[in-house]
Amino acid sequence: MPTRKVAIIGAGASGLCALKCCLDEGLEPTCFERSKDIGGLWRFEENPEEGRASIYRSVIINTSKEMMCFSDYPIPEDFPNYMHNSKIMEYFRMYAQHFDLLRHIRFRTSVCRVSKRPDFASSGQWEVVTESEGKQETAVFDAVLVCSGHHTDAHLPLSSFPGLEKFEGWYLHSRDYKNPQSFLGKRVVVVGIGNSGIDIAVELSNVTKQVFLSTKRGSWVLHRVADNGYPFDFTYISRFKQFLQNLLPPNVINFFLERKLNARFDHTLYGLKPKHR
User: Fold this and answer.
1) Rounded Cα gap, residues 270 and 6, in angstroms
2) Sign of CA dihedral 150, 151, 154, 157
3) Is 3 in contact with 143 (CB distance < 8 Å)?
4) End-to-end alpha-carbon separation of the chain, Å?
5) Is-above-0.85 flag for pTM?
6) Left if phi > 0, otherwise alpha if psi is -120 to 50, otherwise beta: which for 238?
7) Which long-range contacts (CB under 8 A, 24 or more apart) does 247-251 make?
8) 263 in Cβ contact with 208 (< 8 Å)
9) What digits encode the pLDDT tens for the residues 52-64?
10) C or N: which end of the chain has fewer Cβ atoms within 10 Å?
């Protein structure tokens, strides 16, 4: 029986481990990466690239290395618990080199179309059209794994801000934010209290005249570091905690978690307590 061929779209975190798993199973994978390098979301570039997620220079992951590492290749002990994006890229390169993955990746190659072959009902095969340096190629694969991520498009609802056309300052999406230097001495409002919103507000507070963090409904803020200096996810995500969560009523779980979060700072005092538990 001929070796089954697999197309993998994207060479980020998911694409790399998908590639390695295919090799483990004796399959013949080909990974198509539209950019020049591996890493996907975690590869910092000064200028955002179309079709690829974009991060700011100071980004540190909010998942501990104990929880995020590939199970078959632990992150080195001397790496910090929560890694800067450059350390994550270093780890990905070590992983790719250790398992000899790069030779299976075709860089600067975009996937234009994936479609079922006419005999798909019997063969289960897919037709994949790719483009590289202006030339298109068509190949047949037995399976396709889509590992292209989901942070590629900026959501900037300008219609939600009437009067913006008269605003004399400047505005941008966090996708286009790279460092705080441009905001030196300015008054800035950050809209949204998600991970990047909080991150950017804190960073800007070191150089701006004043920063306002705008949130529609507040949020429960979880710190990276838990009791005794252990990573939060390492401490609270376990089989035993999952057992308790399945055993106890949601109100009881919420009570204990909210008490723990409010011990760090009172969410009501800072106007952050949301209506949801």
Assistant:
1) 52
2) positive
3) no
4) 55
5) yes
6) beta
7) 250/277, 251/277
8) no
9) 889 999 999 999 9
10) N
